[in-house]
Specification:
By secondary structure, the chain is mainly α. The chain has two domains: about 80 residues, no CATH class; about 45 residues. It is built from five helices and no strands. Helix 1 runs antiparallel to helix 2, helix 1 crosses helix 3 and helix 2 runs antiparallel to helix 3. The radius of gyration is 34 Å and the shape is rod-shaped. It is a multi-pass membrane protein.
């Protein structure tokens, strides 16, 4: 059991640090770009996660008292179902009006063509 723990603990720490690094906003990564931290965590799988947890991320709140991740959480757009979204419903009404206009034009063209065919048939019958 202890032998398994020797391999599982660094693996678990590596996975935790990797996911933590990926979920960290770019402006909270210290000293290096976030992609460099990802490579360090994955290449040096015993030391890399420890370095990331110790020095790779801003852990204290900035001067304003709020972290960027809190700001992102509070200003995230709420998802609205399509049938509750007034903009979506309005766009459907506009599309419906366009479709109705196209249908009326198509029907008028069809009637015109039918009348032309009837006139041609009547004209050929009268000529015979």
């Amino acid at each position: 059991m202890l032998r398994a723990l020797i391999y599982l603990l660094p693996l678990a720490l590596t996975i935790f640090a990797f996911i933590d690094c990926l979920n960290t906003p770019e402006d909270e990564a210290k000293h290096l770009p976030k992609i460099a931290w990802v490579f360090i965590i994955l290449l040096f799988w015993i030391v890399g996660p420890i370095v990331w947890l110790a020095a790779g991320k801003v852990r204290q709140a900035p001067a304003g008292g709020r972290t960027p991740s809190e700001w992102h959480r509070n200003h995230r757009q709420q998802w609205v179902a399509p049938d509750d979204n007034p903009d979506f419903l309005k766009s459907l009404k506009e599309e419906n009006k366009k479709d109705e206009a196209l249908l009326k034009d198509w029907e008028a063209d069809l009637r015109r063509r039918e009348e032309e065919l009837k006139r041609r048939e009547n004209g050929t019958e009268e000529a015979s």
